[in-house]
Specification:
The complex is a heterodimer of chains A (254) and B (410). Chain A has 254 residues and is an all-alpha fold. Helix content of chain A is 57%, strand content 2%. In chain A, helix 1 packs antiparallel against helix 2 and helix 2 runs antiparallel to helix 3. Chain B has one domain. Chain B contains 15 helices and two strands. Chain B is globular and about 70 Å long. The chains are: A mainly alpha (254), B mainly alpha (410). The interface between A and B is large, with 46 and 42 residues.
């Protein structure tokens, strides 16, 4: 038994088992892991069949990017979410059954017509200048038009996704910490440049509904949260005022 | 003769020996690098670091490993058991696989057999490394999901988004090297750096690779997937004992793997630095391993240096940096490299090439000037200061003036 057939007989049953098990898994994440495994085995087969570039690209693109995004979504949706068994779009079930039947019929006819044991033709010729170089030669000369059309299609799809996911920026600009700090100093007064006074500071009680006392003993309304003001939950502060300090008016004169 | 043909006639026992050696080297390097990291970071923070177990504390990592293995292995009740066990295994197996295509030495004499310490030389070797890295993410993501708790899930999500984004920047930085070397095999890429290392020729690619490799390995300042301050420990919060040790091992082997790849792609792999080429014959070619080792160590030191210096980035800034800076810059740079390559291949005169290079440099300088000007203008506008109003709040009398007043009163 050659190395290649040994590889096949080990991995192929595992791949088939994994793909069947994928259908019967209860959790979507388990199905996704099994599907990723099937993709990796396919990639190994490609590499064993002298198509290393295809094999590696299969892993990078399908396992690494597509399956990972699937997993990403499944994880976001939630660990315990299960599929709904109610038909949400009318008639979708019959369409699904029809498509599945048609697809399996196509597959079965193709596989039934396959002939086993024929030697491969033209592989050495195709790989004569190196697998990657041979592929590049085709991709960028004979099939450059198809290649470009497909990439245009993909870009269109990406643009479409971006347009669908796009949301208008809100008119209220998000302020950064820096701009808020500058704004505090640019305002009408720099009284609150270092932030609003905390409630209860210098007062006889340290409660959230009690205004802070300014240096001259006057209560500061700013120290109480706006919500409490609106609710009227502010303690009467007159009795907490300090006296015996020199009174200062708003201009700072005694 | 390229690497592939030298390796091709290896007998089976050499292949097995190489595999075992690479594995042993990775595990040993992990032990050493855990110790090295702690010592270097300690020095950067004016501490001594581990210095009790063994000479210079060298066996500290080993002692920690033994302690870790003997701890109780806890599987949370909410965890998905099968996936919970599978995740660290995926993580640790894939990170070793990258070393299969990296040549650790030049041509050496291995018990009478001429060979290279490289398991295989695939024509798509570098892409293979990218592929194994992309499977390695499954370990982190599944570990985060299967823990059945919030912080690990967030860590897993962050890391998958992060690694996918930075893999793009990383893959694009390979493109310059591929175009320049005309091959994707690691052996050919090293051979193409015989005259100039790629770090000189393709410096922008090198810079972007170095940045994205830090993002790819979830290391500080890009360690958002396990940010201790925000996510407790990220994807591995619920892991303990040997399973945690496997994640730990995977992280360090990954660091060494990306460093080894950087050495291969940009620093000439195991070849000697310019002017020291005569060393390649020493020790029957084995001296080249010392050069390779030193280069990898330099990268590792850089990793530790970053960790000791930079604070962690905010997640949105980090993603913005990847998508809006690294990837566009990389694409523009690939355009320049491809054009230069085409010009040289078609035998354009030195004059044309110099003219094109000059035009590119001018365009970059021009773009930078315009950017700086517009930035300056917005800053100027922001800095225009209006006269500050007089303070309108009561100011307490200073103690000295109070004292003066009292004196006057007397």
């Amino acid at each position: 038994m050659s190395g290649e057939s040994a590889l096949f007989w080990v991995l192929a049953p595992l791949a088939v088992l994994a793909s069947v098990a994928m259908l019967f898994m209860k959790k979507a994440v388990h199905s996704a892991i099994l599907l990723a495994w099937v993709m990796i085995t396919l990639a190994i087969f490609y590499i064993a069949l002298d198509a290393p570039f295809l094999g590696i690209v299969q892993i990078v693109v399908y396992t690494g990017a597509v399956m990972m995004l699937f997993l990403f979504i499944l994880m976001l949706v939630g660990v315990d979410s299960s599929d709904s068994l109610v038909e949400k779009i009318k008639g979708i079930r019959s369409v699904a059954i029809f498509t599945a039947l048609a697809f399996s019929l196509t597959l079965i006819t193709f596989i039934a017509r396959a002939e086993l044991g024929r030697p491969s033709v033209g592989l050495d010729e195709a790989n004569s200048g190196g697998n990657v170089e041979g592929l590049a030669q085709y991709l960028f000369s004979d099939y450059v038009w198809a290649f470009e059309v497909i990439s245009a299609l993909l870009i269109t799809a990406a643009l479409g996704a971006m347009v669908l996911a796009h949301s208008e920026k809100s008119d209220v600009a998000r302020t950064s910490q820096k701009s808020r700090s500058i704004a505090r100093f640019r305002g009408k007064s720099i009284a609150t440049a270092a932030g609003l006074p905390g409630s209860g500071v210098y007062a006889r009680n340290n409660a959230i509904d009690l205004p802070a006392l300014l240096p001259d003993g006057k209560p500061s309304d700013l120290s109480i949260a706006e919500v409490l003001h609106r609710r009227g939950d502010v303690a009467e502060s007159k009795s907490y005022e300090l006296d015996g300090l020199p009174k200062i008016d708003n201009e700072g004169n005694k | 003769m390229n690497n592939a043909s030298i390796i091709l006639d290896d007998p089976t026992w050499i292949i097995v020996a190489k595999g075992v050696l690479v594995f042993a080297l990775c595990v040993l390097l992990t032990l050493l690098s855990v110790w090295g990291e702690r010592r270097i970071v300690a020095r950067m923070q004016m501490r001594m670091g581990p210095n009790r177990v063994g000479p210079f504390g060298l066996l500290q990592a080993l002692a920690d490993g033994v302690k870790l293995a003997l701890k109780e292995d806890i599987i949370p009740a909410a965890a998905d058991r099968a996936v919970f066990v599978l995740a660290p295994i995926i993580s640790v197996t894939t990170c070793f696989m990258a070393f299969a295509v990296i040549p650790l030495t030049g041509e050496v004499n291995f018990f009478g057999e001429q060979t290279i310490m490289q398991l295989t030389d695939l024509p798509v070797g570098v892409l293979y490394v990218l592929a194994t890295a992309s499977i390695g993410v499954y370990g982190i993501v599944l570990g985060g999901w299967s823990s059945g708790s919030t912080y690990p899930l967030l860590g897993g999500l962050r890391s998958s988004a992060q690694v996918i984004s930075y893999e793009i920047a990383m893959g694009l930085s390979f493109v310059g090297v591929f175009i320049y070397a005309g091959s994707m095999s690691t052996g050919d890429i090293i051979a193409s750096q015989a005259t100039w290392w790629n770090v000189v020729v393709l410096f922008p690619s090198f810079a972007i690779y170095v940045i994205s490799m830090v993002g790819e390995t979830n290391r500080a300042p890009f360690d958002l997937a396990e940010a201790e301050g925000e996510l407790v420990g990220g994807f591995h919060t619920e892991y303990s004992s040997l399973k945690f040790a496997l994640f730990f091992l995977a992280e360090y082997v990954n660091i060494i793997a990306v460093s080894a790849l950087a050495t291969t792609l940009f620093l000439g792999g195991p070849s000697a630095p310019p002017g020291l080429g005569f060393t390649s014959a020493w020790l029957g070619g084995w001296f080249s391993f010392i050069w390779f080792f030193l280069k990898v160590l330099a990268f590792f030191f850089f990793f530790v240096w970053l960790r000791g210096t930079l604070p962690r980035l905010r997640y949105d800034q980090f993603m913005k940096f990847g998508w809006k800076v690294l990837i566009p810059v990389n694409i523009a740079w690939i355009l320049v490299v491809a054009t230069l390559r085409l010009l040289t291949q078609q035998g354009a005169s030195q004059f044309v090439i110099a003219g094109f290079t000059g035009a590119v440099v001018l365009a970059v300088l021009g773009a930078m000037t315009i950017y700086d000007r517009s930035k300056l203008k917005t800053e100027e506008r922001a800095n225009q200061v209006e006269p500050m109003p007089e303070p309108s709040f009561p100011v307490p009398a200073l103690p000295t003036s109070l004292a003066l007043k009292e004196k006057e009163g007397n």
